[in-house]
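Colleagues,

Please find the record for the three-part complex below.
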Amino acid sequence: MSGVFEQVYALVRQIPPGKVATYGQLAHLIGRPRGARLVGYAMSACPSSAGVPCHRVVNRFGGTTAAFDTFGPGTQRALLEAEGVAFTPEGCVDLSLHLWQPLF
DNA sequence: GCAGTGACCGTGA
DNA sequence: CTCACGGCCACTG
């Protein structure tokens, strides 16, 4: 609470299935236009106990995080595809179709 | 208690 | 157009 991480987790938790958000976008939403790194670190913490779908967070290119290879190659991609997220031949998420836009 | 690092982004030259 | 650097917060050693 009262921490940047909690702010990030709160937003990520609001991301509906089939949608993805970028680090920079989340950083802006928490009031840290230049704090994209904080979002990345917050994801690294990725407390499953907090119910944070960190697999729905990708970089600005829509590329999945290599850190997910911890569970196996292409783990994050598999999770997103299971939710109906379309991927480009380059292996990136089609942000034009699945970029999460906070209504309010 | 101090310093360095980290799943990144944006701007300047 | 491309290359390079700074900046933000929290956690670890």
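Chain A has one domain: 4-98.

Comments are welcome before we finalize the supplementary table.
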